[in-house]
Write a structure and sequence with these properties.
The complex is a heterodimer of chains A (684) and B (261).
Chain A (H helix, E strand, L loop, with lengths): L5 H30 L11 H13 L10 H29 L12 H28 L8 H28 L8 H9 L5 H25 L7 H10 L31 H8 L6 H4 L2 H4 L6 H14 L1 H5 L19 H5 L6 H5 L6 H16 L7 H10 L22 H6 L6 E4 L1 H6 L1 H16 L4 E2 L10 H6 L2 H17 L4 E4 L2 H10 L8 E4 H10 L13 E4 L13 H9 L4 E3 L28 H10 L5 E4 L2 H13 L7 E4 H7 L20
Parallel strand pairs in A: 1-2, 1-3, 3-4, 5-6, 5-7, 7-8
Helix pairs in contact in A: 1-7, 2-8, 3-4, 4-5, 5-6, 5-7, 8-9, 9-12, 12-16, 20-28, 24-25
Chain B lengths: L1 E5 L2 E3 L20 E3 L3 H15 L2 E7 L5 H11 L4 E6 L9 H15 L3 E4 L11 H9 L2 E12 L2 E8 L2 E8 L2 E5 L11 H7 L4 E4 L12 H4 L25 H11 L4
Parallel strand pairs in B: 1-4, 1-6, 4-5, 5-11, 6-10, 7-10
Antiparallel strand pairs in B: 2-3, 7-8, 8-9
Helix pairs in contact in B: 2-5, 3-4
The chains are: A mainly alpha (684), B alpha/beta (261).
Chain lengths: 684, 261
């Protein structure tokens, strides 16, 4: 049944559908062509994983209904699932408009479906009401409400209302023995029951056409609004990266490249351009961004939108093959996106973790950094000596290569060179890293690890002066050339010694050696000291009997250990199991842990605006009233030490590394006879 | 402008510098880099080139490895018109300041620039008089300790840095300029610059091409000789004074014993 009677009625409908579909197709085609302006990327591997993620994250709305922002997420999920059901009904409506007898199986005139449909309409209306309440009353910081948002909410409301009234008037005008299954429409029909059959039939026609035309109008409007995400989200989720999140894309064949990184819109990979179409401006990325929250000029959302507006604004030029910024007035970096925005990023990965449609903010920022460093030589002045030092000294400071093993001088630690010369084998190579080797505070952590390894009878060695920086700061700042040079040195050394298993106490060394070294022929089993110590305890090789002197502890999840590599529990199991231990959790913890501010090379950069990122995190820690922040990365430890001094809270709060806490709990003094660490040793 | 910048490759600042049995600097077992004082010289050359146009040549005297430092200088030059010359010859080993000045000056005469730029001194030798020796050979004016440089037409004006201020000096091209370590912040070469440097012209000249007799340079021609070398005594442990109310007196006594007050 439908109000399209006779040739004329059917013709109008067909014309409307064809017209709308044509316009829609044209606009979609333009979008597809814009995406193809981007550079080639292989996103067609791991098909089973991609399909699985499509089901989990799109159908299952998984990221939306996780905290934080669980309630708004549920509101959205309801609108989404509601519309999946409703769309079937819309299809039925169109089908019947073309041929009155058509009944889609399990949909048309199906009682179960009819109930479900009306239920979903109410659910969607309620959700729209809740969404409006959030935008008008609650006004959360992350939500920027533009007219587009109201148009969409308005159109959804119109669709729901017209659908209900279509049902109601149809019931009044024509009745049926199954009408009551459309229970809301049925109830509504009671309210308008007083009309004459003729009037009801006319109103039925009015609302029917209103609904059809609104659907078609919405379809045409879609590609130019942020509601486009309903089409593109499935694609951005499907084409999500298949490589570990902590692995940056290598630039192969550096010598022969004409361009490095991204300095123009068309230099982005196509998936990065597609990403911008799925941004609904929800702001979940912004919500925990350590840069934004400390007043830095970086909003991950605005970076994505900057690229999007550039893409749309310069579409004509891009599609004609003329490239972007042809008049020089709209450079991507320094124009649409400020240099300082890019440098403010710590690469903590919160934005990437939070985005419900899998937009990759951090890789875009890093691509642009690469352009600034490798092509433009345009980066914060304080970084230049860092690069020079890494190149000349293998560490970010003016410290001699030859002294890299000096921290272990009196600790009876064998070097790989000695082990190899003696023809012995090791269980694990302890990759100490620059901080553990040279930094006064972190040398104590390295010493604690040595103590633990010896107590557990682990056969280990260090590279000492044969070790060089793992290269993470260079890579994250954008200097791929320097990174590859450092990585290749380490990989050569490790491979020459036949190293199979690598232990690190630094989350950055851990992530880079584990996830990035394989790109250059360095594949090892890599463990972080939290995991390794937990393993030793489980194997009974470490007995942790002495009561902890650190009072109430809270564990700060380093970004590159937790969010990037999923290691959350081993350290907590151990800490909770220590005698007299009291472990509390911060509000933003585990996947939601907020960055200390040291990543992305930022520990070598000045913070010139806003508040110190570390201070924000320390305040979050202090909210749960700990005596000690337990860290598991030397950057976090250093940022917190400085932050605690800067905030003048040294008398109430200290920071200790996981290894230091555990070493203190060892049942007996270390084999070298050195006295055990007491609680005061933690601070310099 | 036709600029020559003299560049020396020296051990990195953090390297343990050692003399080998011949009492010559051991350059083998250390990592080498551009002499830190030459980096501002290179940068100043590039800035003047950008402002006034022309070409630049980086000139170095050293073993084959010194080519790396010349390539780094070329990398800094990026797209600018730059080339490099290495004077390398076994007979040059052990040259003192005078031998070095002779060789470099001969090369500069061959290159015939209108401006020569050097750094203040070298990280390893540290004598700081090379520019003066070269000015003598080339019979050119020398502006030393230049903390700022401007060129107008043929006139070069510099601020000569003193311990308590500066004096303004002027002279006409051609001349030699010796710049301070603080005159500018040397640029970081872009990767394109680094890659491009490999393709830039780099010549190696021997003593024969410079028409210098081997007995005038190297250990053979040196007019100064190193007779011996002694490592400084290890730094004595200092005294830490904790203030229990008497710190001022104790510090005063410490200074008085050493006749500082």
């Amino acid at each position: 049944m439908a109000p399209t009677n006779g040739v004329f009625g059917h013709l109008i409908l067909i014309l409307a559908i064809v017209g709308a579909l044509t316009l829609f197709a044209q606009r979609v085609r333009r979008l597809v062509r814009l995406v193809r302006v981007g550079t080639a990327e292989d996103r067609f591997d791991d098909m089973p994983g991609r399909v699985r993620d499509l089901l989990l994250y799109v159908l299952g709305q998984r990221r939306l209904i996780k905290s934080p922002n669980r309630v708004p997420g549920i509101i959205h999920a309801l609108i989404f699932w509601g519309f999946l059901i409703i769309t079937l009904g819309t299809l039925q409506l169109f089908a019947a408009g073309l041929d009155h007898a058509v009944l889609i199986p399990a949909v048309g005139n199906d009682p179960v479906y009819m109930v479900l449909l009306d239920l979903m309409i109410i659910v969607v209306l309620a959700a729209v009401g809740a969404a409006s309440y959030r935008r008008i009353v609650v006004k959360p910081y992350r939500l920027t409400t533009k007219p587009d948002a109201w148009i969409i909410l308005g159109l959804i409301t119109v669709l729901m209302i017209t659908l209900l009234f279509t049902e109601a008037f149809a019931i009044v005008a024509y009745g049926s023995n199954i009408a009551h299954w459309s229970f809301i429409g049925y109830a509504l029909s009671g309210l308008v029951g007083g009309l004459s059959l003729n009037a009801a039939a006319n109103l039925y026609g009015v609302f029917w056409w209103a609904h059809i035309l609104t659907v078609l109008g919405f379809l045409v409007y879609l590609p130019s609004s942020k509601h486009l995400h309903i089409l593109t989200a499935a694609f951005t989720v499907f084409f999500r990266p298949s490589t570990p999140r902590g692995a940056m894309t290598p630039i192969r064949d550096l010598e022969n490249q004409e361009h490095f990184g991204v300095g123009k819109l068309e230099q982005f990979g196509w998936k990065h351009l597609l990403d911008t179409f799925s941004c609904t401006e929800c702001g979940r990325c912004d919500r925990n961004c350590p840069a934004l929250l400390s007043g830095k000029p970086l909003s991950p959302k605005e970076v994505v939108l900057g690229i999007k507006y550039g893409l749309f604004g310069e579409a004509d030029s891009l599609l004609a093959g003329k490239g972007s910024n042809t008049d020089g007035a709209h450079p991507l970096i320094g124009g649409r996106i400020a240099d300082e925005s890019l440098w403010s990023c710590t690469t903590c990965g919160w934005c990437v973790e939070a985005c419900p449609v899998f937009i990759e903010h951090v890789p875009k920022i890093l691509d642009m950094r690469r352009n600034l460093v490798l092509e433009e030589s345009r980066f914060p002045a304080e970084i230049q000596p860092v690069f020079a030092n890494l190149e000349k000294n293998g560490n970010p400071w003016q410290l001699p290569k030859k002294q890299r093993g000096a921290w272990a001088k009196d600790l009876d630690v064998p070097t790989m060179a000695e082990i190899a010369a003696a023809g012995e084998r090791i269980d694990v190579l302890y990759f100490v890293g620059c901080m553990g080797s040279y930094d006064q505070r972190n040398k104590k952590v390295a010493a604690a690890i040595v103590k633990l390894l010896k107590a557990a009878n682990v056969k280990f060695a260090i590279l000492a002066k044969e070790e060089t920086c793992n290269g993470d700061p260079a890579r994250r700042i954008g200097n791929e050339y320097l990174f590859q040079s450092l990585a290749e040195q380490n990989i050569q050394t490790l491979n020459d010694y036949g190293v199979k298993k690598v232990l690190t106490a630094c989350a950055h060394c851990f992530n880079t050696i584990k996830n990035e070294y394989p790109q250059f022929g360095g594949t090892y089993e890599v463990v972080h000291h939290t995991e390794f110590i937990a393993e030793l305890v489980a194997q009974g090789r470490l007995t942790l009997d002495r009561p902890v002197g650190d009072g109430t502890m809270t564990f700060h999840d380093p970004c590159y250990l937790g969010r990037y590599n999923g290691v959350f529990e081993p350290q907590r199991d151990i800490l909770r199991g220590l005698p007299m231990a009291n472990l509390v959790e911060m509000e933003r913890t585990k996947r939601g842990s907020m960055c200390c501010g040291g990543g992305g090379g930022r520990s070598f950069m000045e913070e010139r605006t806003g508040k110190r990122m570390s201070h924000n995190r320390i305040e979050q820690a202090m909210a749960v009233k700990p005596d000690t922040i337990v860290a598991a990365c030397p950057f976090c430890t250093t940022m917190f030490e400085d932050g605690i001094k800067g905030m003048n809270v040294e008398s109430t709060l200290k920071v200790r590394d996981f290894a230091e806490v555990v070493a203190d709990s060892l049942a007996a003094p270390g084999p070298s006879g050195t006295p055990c660490y007491t609680g005061d040793e933690g601070r310099d | 402008m036709d600029i020559v910048v003299c560049v020396k490759q020296t051990p990195v600042a953090t390297a343990e510098k050692r003399l080998d049995p011949d009492l010559l600097l051991d350059r083998e077992s250390v990592d080498n880099a551009i002499n830190t004082y030459d980096e501002p010289a290179i940068e100043e050359g590039l800035r003047l080139l950008e402002a006034h146009g022309g070409s630049i040549t980086f000139l170095s005297m050293g073993p084959d490895e010194a080519v790396d430092s010349l390539r780094k200088a070329l990398a800094m030059a990026g797209d600018l018109d730059a080339r490099a010359v290495l004077i390398s010859d076994d007979a040059l080993r052990g040259s003192d300041i005078l031998g070095t000045a002779l060789a470099l000056s001969a090369a500069i005469q061959k290159l015939n620039p209108n401006l020569v730029i050097l750094g203040m001194r070298s990280d390893d030798g540290g004598a700081g008089v090379l520019a003066a020796a070269m000015a003598q050979h080339l019979d050119l004016a020398l502006l030393t300790n230049a903390n700022t440089v401007t060129i107008e037409g043929k006139t070069v004006r510099s601020h000569r840095r003193l311990s308590d201020g500066y004096i303004v000096q002027e002279s006409d091209l051609p001349l030699i300029l010796a710049v301070t370590d603080a005159i500018n912040t040397p640029r970081y070469p872009s990767l394109k610059g680094i890659m491009g440097a490999k393709k830039k012209p780099l010549q190696t000249w021997s003593l024969e091409e410079l028409a210098i007799e081997p007995d005038r340079v190297g250990t053979a021609g040196a007019r100064t000789h190193v007779l011996g070398a002694v490592a400084p005594p290890p730094r004595a442990k200092g005294e830490v004074v904790e203030d229990k109310g008497d710190a001022a007196e104790r510090i005063l006594a410490f200074l008085a014993v050493r006749k500082v007050v």
